[in-house]
Design brief:
The protein is mainly α. The chain is 82% helix and 0% strand. The protein is built from seven helices and no strands. Helix 1 packs antiparallel against helix 4 (75-90) and helix 2 runs antiparallel to helix 3 (51-70). It is elongated and about 60 Å long. The chain starts with a helix and ends with a helix.
């Protein structure tokens, strides 16, 4: 197998990983209350015995109350999911022709970097626990890594 074939295969694999990550991340923004109930039960956090348990119970109760009284607010997270799906679809261009669509990797890298200040600032304004904001920041970090390699390897392909 030639170096070009190896690079194209690696780029395709990491691009698929990024697309699937975006899709899964978006899909998890829809059934929030059900997912949170599963997490609380899985962690045995029903009694609020730790900071994590107390936080999860607080969020679950708020989501349950919001769903009962103001379910229309969840339309915002439906659109959040839609945004993830659309961005994932755009990266199909990088699968088809990574060199011509190298700009997508730059776009993705910028977006991943911007996740960090966005999560830290707006999470702080919304009263989100710091460690939870770090989890959100990790999405940017873990998205950055495959995109960085894809950008590097497409540059290598471009140079021939």
């Amino acid at each position: 197998m030639s170096r070009e074939q190896i690079l194209r295969r690696r780029i395709k694999l990491l691009t698929w990983l990024f697309i699937v990550g975006l899709f899964v991340s978006g899909a998890t923004a829809i059934p929030l209350l059900g997912e949170l109930n599963l997490l609380v039960n899985f962690l045995g956090a029903n009694h609020g015995s730790s900071e994590l348990a107390s936080w999860l119970l607080r969020v679950r109760d708020a989501l349950a109350q919001t769903q009962a009284q103001h379910a229309f607010l969840f339309y915002g997270t439906d659109w959040l999911a839609f945004g993830h799906f659309v961005i994932a679809i755009v990266f199909i261009g990088a699968l088809r022709d990574p060199v011509r669509n190298r700009w997508l990797f730059n776009f993705g890298l910028i977006a991943c970097v911007l996740v960090i200040p966005y999560a830290l600032v707006f999470g702080g304004l919304r009263g989100i626990l710091f460690w939870w904001r770090l989890i959100d920041c990790s999405c940017g970090v873990f998205g950055f890594i495959p995109l960085w390699f894809c950008r590097k390897w497409t540059g290598e392909l471009e140079r021939g």
